[in-house]
């Protein structure tokens, strides 16, 4: 895994009520990741960017919702999310991204 590829894996943190609740209860952080990202790549990318130790990674594929725009039917894009569990005592700081 080269560093250039790892920098493109994590697209954005997921900031929702559910993601915040999961972060508080389970010490997990949610990220939107590239569609072809694997668990080992996600783990390596988080460790590289945030300088923390990752315990485990859970991934889910979320299908885009069908939405109507007047009489036209469209679709939102599909997303891939990763819930990253950090090791005991580790904390993620978004202000100090490498």
UniProtKB/TrEMBL annotation:
**InterPro entries for the chain:** Nucleotide-bd_a/b_plait_sf, Ribosomal_uL23-like, Ribosomal_uL23/eL15/eS24_sf
Look up the record and give one Gene Ontology term from the biological process aspect.
Answer: translation
Q: What's one Pfam family here?
A: Ribosomal_L23
Q: Name one GO molecular function term.
A: structural constituent of ribosome
> Which UniProt key words apply to this protein?
Ribonucleoprotein, Ribosomal protein, RNA-binding, rRNA-binding
Segments traversing the membrane: none
Q: Which GO terms describe its cellular component?
A: ribonucleoprotein complex; ribosome
Name the SUPFAM superfamilies on file: Ribosomal proteins S24e, L23 and L15e
Q: What family does the Swiss-Prot or TrEMBL record give for this protein? A: Belongs to the universal ribosomal protein uL23 family.
Complex formation:
Part of the 50S ribosomal subunit. Contacts protein L29, and trigger factor when it is bound to the ribosome.
Role: One of the early assembly proteins it binds 23S rRNA. One of the proteins that surrounds the polypeptide exit tunnel on the outside of the ribosome. Forms the main docking site for trigger factor binding to the ribosome.
This one is known as: Large ribosomal subunit protein uL23
Instruction: State the organism named in the record.
Output: Neopusillimonas maritima
